[in-house]
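pasting for ref. prot 1 ->
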Amino acid sequence: MTAAAPDRVPVIAVTAGEPAGIGPELCLQLALRRAWPARLVVLGDAALLQETATRLGLHLALRDYRPDNAGPLPGTLEVLHLPLAAPATPGRLDPANARHVLALLDRAADGCLAGEFDAMVTAPVHKSVINDAGIAFSGHTEYLASRTGTARVVMMLMAPRAGGWLRVALATTHLPLRAVADAITPDSLEQTLRILDLGLRERFGLAAPHILVAGLNPHAGEGGHLGREEIEVIIPVLEKLSAEGMHLAGPLPADTLFVPQQLDRADCVLAMYHDQGLPVLKHVGFEHGVNVTVGLPIIRTSPDHGTALDLAGSGRADCGSMAAAMEVALSMARAGPPHGDMRPLGGQRSVGVLAMVRAGAAP
């Protein structure tokens, strides 16, 4: 993936996600939301998108995607047609369409790797129905890492807050709670922090990111009385990487980490597990939250919510988080490709982040 040239309009692939969910509607709303400085190419079933637009009264002309299309054109949406395996009904999951959902991701990722697309934005998928189809699937993050041949990536979510963004990355992602402690090893934690530090510098323009690291146990282990993971795993890794020049603080008790006094001095929080960090982030900005996969050789963002089957087909789905994901993807695409240098940089913290973040504005 290469950065979009200054004189070329970026091309962003948008996958329509679970066809029975709100994804198709979100893609249409996204195109109507504003005049984007990019070509939006929705990957999905063209007939389903047209049916959705007609049912919801969304006035948008669909045209077939071709790499050499002119654009963007007002009132039109480019569609890269990938057919459903079975008819889709709003709110009713069908395992027959699981491979269709994955085909959307495959085509978008392959297009990003080839330089056809500058970034991909993914509408929500439904993990359980993909697994019901007999396909092992734990989420976008892990699937795209495998598809791009990336050994390790980091899931990071971000939401607007006063003066900028709250960013929360995860040391572990979709694991049962009883498996979390075993998954946090010195090697895995070190790799996560290196990828996160590099991603914040190269994708978000932070010269020396300041990362707050949560403890795993209540009260960050309370000196070993509530668990020894902080003493035996987390602290040695933080000491090693801090000696190399990374700006890290922790391990900090998670119940007092997400307070303004702490967040105001940080660029990102690393939580040890999914439900340690994400409930706070979604409380802060659920309607404008963005999921970013850090460490991929391509740019991938998504809204921070699920398929909302209860809203599918109603016209009441909120496009705010999807639009925020588009904004972040565009900003990251303009920043250029990663250099792949894992060495930490020293020096003073930079406030020169990407345009949207620099302005401190919500999408």
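and prot 2 ->
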Amino acid sequence: MAKAQIVEAGVDDVADILGFVRDLARFEKLEHEVTATEQSLRESLFGPRRHAEVVFAEDDGERVGFALFFHNYSTFLGRPGLYLEDLYVRPEKRGRGYGRLLIRHLAALAVARGCGRLEWQALDWNADAVAFYRSLGAEPMSDWTVFRFSGETLTRHAQSAD
């Protein structure tokens, strides 16, 4: 990993971003849920209102991993935070420090931006990821349950008059 570096994604990288998203979804056995397109990523990541940011881990010019993140906010801290939506390193490149490089970059970015925390979720069954995050000193938030509205439920609540 002598030549590894972090590279910020630009609009010309949308195809690579979508490729990493699909690779991650395939790994998580959720590829059937990916509806993102190059156009939707271009609009949401590089349009007039940028909803998230992406960085790549590159080694000798080869993109070996990526992280997609955005700002959230903590009312308790009265400060923004960074939320890591996706972190993925190609399976054949794991164990070489690329994930650690991405996490360290995001931690440094969070500190530089005055954020009070860096947060993310991991699938319970992904023991390797959980072990990796714990090895970095990350603490699982076992007292919290993630809730979600999506699809028809989201639409129904958005249109509810009561």
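The longest strand covers residues 62-74.
The chain has one domain: 4-159.
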